[in-house]
Write a structure and sequence with these properties.
Blueprint lengths: L23 E5 L2 E4 L4 E4 L2 H4 L8 H11 L12 H12 L5 E5 L2 H18 L7 E5 L8 H7 L2 H4 L9 E4 L4 H7 L4 E6 L13 H14 L2 E5 L14 H4 L5 E4 L10 E5 L20 H14 L4 H22 L4 E7 L2 E6 L3 H10 L2 E2 L1 E3 L3 E4 L7 H27 L1
Parallel strand pairs: 3-13, 5-6, 5-7, 7-8, 8-9
Antiparallel strand pairs: 1-2, 2-3, 4-10, 9-10, 11-12, 12-15, 14-15
Helix pairs in contact: 2-10, 3-10, 11-13, 12-13
């Protein structure tokens, strides 16, 4: 394909994002300040990334201190901050080992490879298929798109990566039928964030664990969005009563600094020997300094008690809005500070109306609006957010009534 002249473009960014026409220059806790000086209450948190809000002083200090010393040396050498972070994550979880990367998709790629390699080194290289669930979202790489199975994301990229069998969420009989001689394991999100803030019953997770044990399969939890406090515990698997073999983390792990991790037991990671996997930037000194600083804050006594208290308050307030504006919103779902409100009108209309009220939220599947405040949000900020939601719902209800009257 030849191009004789460059086209005129308003932006030279690849147009794969439908960006809102607003830009920010600084942040303070749960607030963002736009380039025109407007203040927005941020209940998007960079899509569950900025768990400690914006410009958290401990994270800022940790990054500034490390940036003045050393940024990157590669994984050819020992990285003490990485060793420290891996130890702390394993001490706080089921895991024995950690692999650091740059994103959730990379963490899931590592988890997929690890599950397949586990079967190969245990004498079953034919076991490579992974069971996943409808509505899941596991990333944007070709393999993680295939794992998610959503056609709208797969369209136009050629044959999908082979090796994933999708079944309905919560359908145990469908899972049993999908298990065959080529099955390596099961991948599931404790809560489907992108899929509409949906979760299976805890009994379903227990049944999956039993199926994996009985059939020598690997259980993989995708905690890219739910991990690092979003559900009110450090990891969401703690609330399911089930321990996975492999777990993917990212988003909040670096408090806003790009970072992912794949955690696993020694047994599940047995095949991951030198040369089987890697990452150039993964776990460098800046990233692990950010990760350790994030853990410093989250592991302080009372931190998750606060998250759970704010979760209860937010859900109660949102339920009251649903009761009073049933023509606009119909249901509150979620746990911790991963809260979804199912909309009656198009979710995009609600999000746009909230942005007009200087409250930032984000869409999810099933016509759901996600409320993802930073975990350090306080009562007055939740009250403020709900007041803005009420104003937006009042306008939307009036518009809806007028449309019906025409």
């Amino acid at each position: 394909m030849n191009q004789t002249a460059k086209p005129h473009l308003d932006s030279h960014m690849l147009p794969v994002f439908a960006r809102a026409d607003v830009a920010f220059e600084r942040g303070e806790g749960p607030w963002l300040i736009a380039t025109n000086g407007d203040r927005y209450l941020d209940f998007t948190s960079g899509v569950a990334v900025n768990a400690l809000g914006h410009a958290h002083p401990h994270l800022v200090a940790a990054l500034q201190e490390q940036a003045a010393k050393l940024w990157h040396v590669s994984n050819l050498f020992t990285i003490p901050e990485g060793e420290k972070l891996a130890t702390r994550l394993c001490d706080a979880s089921f895991a024995d080992v950690a692999f650091f990367c740059n994103s959730g998709a990379e963490a899931m790629e590592a988890a997929i490879k690890m599950a397949r390699k586990f079967q190969a080194v245990n004498g079953h290289p034919e076991r490579y298929r992974l069971i996943t669930f409808e509505g899941a979202f596991h990333g944007r790489t070709l393999a993680t798109l295939a794992a998610g199975g959503q056609q709208k994301y797969l369209e136009g990229f050629g044959p999908r990566v082979e090796g994933f069998d999708q079944v309905p969420l919560g359908d145990l009989e469908a899972v049993k039928k999908a298990i065959g001689p080529h099955t390596a394991g099961i991948i599931i999100e404790p809560w489907q964030g992108e899929g509409g803030v949906r979760a299976a019953d805890p009994s379903f997770f227990r049944a999956l664990r039993q199926l994996c044990d009985d059939n020598k399969l690997v259980l993989v939890f995708d905690e890219v969005q739910t991990g690092m406090g979003r559900i009110g515990t450090l990891f969401a698997y703690e609330k399911t009563g089930v321990t996975p073999d492999i777990m993917a983390l990212a988003k909040a792990l670096g408090g806003g600094f790009p970072m992912g991790a794949c955690l696993a037991t020694v047994a599940a990671a047995a095949g991951m020997t030198p040369g089987t996997h890697g990452s150039t930037f993964g776990g460098n000194l800046l990233a692990t300094a950010a990760g350790n600083a994030t853990l410093d804050v989250m592991l302080k006594p009372g931190f998750f008690d606060h998250v759970q208290k704010m979760s209860l308050l937010l859900k109660q307030k949102l339920a009251s809005v649903v009761d009073r504006y049933s023509s606009v919103v119909s249901e509150v779902r979620g746990d911790g500070l991963l809260i979804g409100v199912k909309a009656v009108v198009p979710a995009g209309d609600v999000i746009s109306a909230l942005r007009d009220e200087k409250l930032l939220t984000v869409a999810a599947g099933d016509n759901v609006v996600r409320f993802l405040p930073p975990l350090i949000v306080n009562e007055s900020e939740i009250e403020d957010a709900v007041t803005r939601l009420e104003r937006a719902c009042t306008r939307l209800a009036r518009t809806s009534a007028q449309s019906e009257a025409v």
